[in-house]
Amino acid sequence: MTGRLVIVGGAPATGKTTLASALGRSLGLPVITKDDFKEAIATPFATGDIAWSRQLGSAAYSALFTVADRILAAGQGLVLESNFRRGMSDAPLRALARLAPTVVIVCRSPDTLRHKRYEERAGTRHRVHIEGAILAEWISDDTESLIDIGSPRLIVDTTDGYSPSIDEVVAFARSATIPEAMKREWPADWSERVRGKECPMCAEGRSDVAHGSSRIFEGRVSDAYLTRIDVGQPGYSVVIWRGRHVSDPTELNTEEASAYFAEVLRVGRALERHYRPIKMNFEMLGNSLPHLHTHVVPRYLDDGEPGHPPHFMRADLDPRNAPTIPEQAYARDLAALRELLRG
Ligand SMILES: [Zn+2]
């Protein structure tokens, strides 16, 4: 995921649009601003009063948040700039912040300077901004613009250039981290587990029953088990490499690899003969238990996931509370498969 959300806020005339543009250039992100939307929406209409301007502002916000949502949901990033307000903008900004690593940057400068800047640029901007009315109702207190949505926030003083410096602001925007709601972390000791730390498949030895499932095949370098859990795919079996601990087949030498795959295919052929599937899947995942093993999954015409990987592979199936194949049917299949895999 490369997307990130950089929210730039601040009271009117604090230089937030200029800062947002600079950030967009440095970060290679599009800059989406409420004013762009507001001006575009206003274009076909005659100029109205301050109420009209506020209505357009509300329409612009709706469009702004929808577009931002679509961009972030697609895994892309953006700089989002407006004079967001505490309270009013909180909920939609928080919703966006759940979609990507997010930072908030708020521009601030003394009120006298803001007022002066606003007066100076009055009349130079799009007619939608109703500058006279805003100056008449000028709000000198900018605390309403100090948005805080729980994401890391940086206040930038824009009195004279930027403080902290633009480089520091860019570095802050780059530091955005994955939001809690999106976190899918590998275990802290993952690399040790890949190397075999506390590996349950090494620990279990070459047992007749593994993870509640019975062995159907005892090969030279592997054991195969018919899964006792009922995942809705009759014949779902797991072949486990029984040599030294390896987590991926790339760690096998040529002789080991040939022996392992020959045994995996032997199990696959027996399953084909017994269950008559329309397709076989051989999946080597090991993303939760990194010891080389292969899921052998017959697929059927009345399959639960036609045309796709079997969905149950994504579930954490706990043998203690998952449904199991009825005992008689399981015993019958075990006997038939063992017969096919004999000698
Ligand atoms: Zn192992």
Give a structural overview:
The chain is of the alpha/beta class and 343 residues long. The protein has two domains: 178 residues, Rossmann fold (3-Layer(aba) Sandwich); 151 residues, 2-Layer Sandwich (HIT family, subunit A), CATH 3.30.428.10. Helices cover 36% and strands 16% of the residues. It has eleven helices and eleven strands. A hairpin with a 3-residue loop joins strand 7 and strand 8. Helix 1 crosses helix 7, helix 2 packs across helix 3 and helix 10 crosses helix 11. The structure holds zinc ion. The site of zinc ion (ZN) has 6 residues, from helix 9.
Physical arrangement of strands within the biggest beta sheet = 6-7-8-9-11-10
What is the N-to-C order of secondary-structure elements (H for helix, E for strand)?
Answer: EHEHHEHEHHEHHHEEEEHEEH
The SS-based structural class is alpha/beta
Q: Supply the CATH class of the largest domain.
A: Alpha Beta
First-residue to last-residue Cα separation: 50 Å
Low-confidence stretches: none
Helical residue percent band: 25-40%
In DSSP terms (H or I, runs of 4 or more residues), the helix count works out at: 11
Shape descriptor: elongated
The CATH topology of the largest domain is Rossmann fold
* Radius of gyration over C-alpha positions, nearest whole angstrom: 31 Å
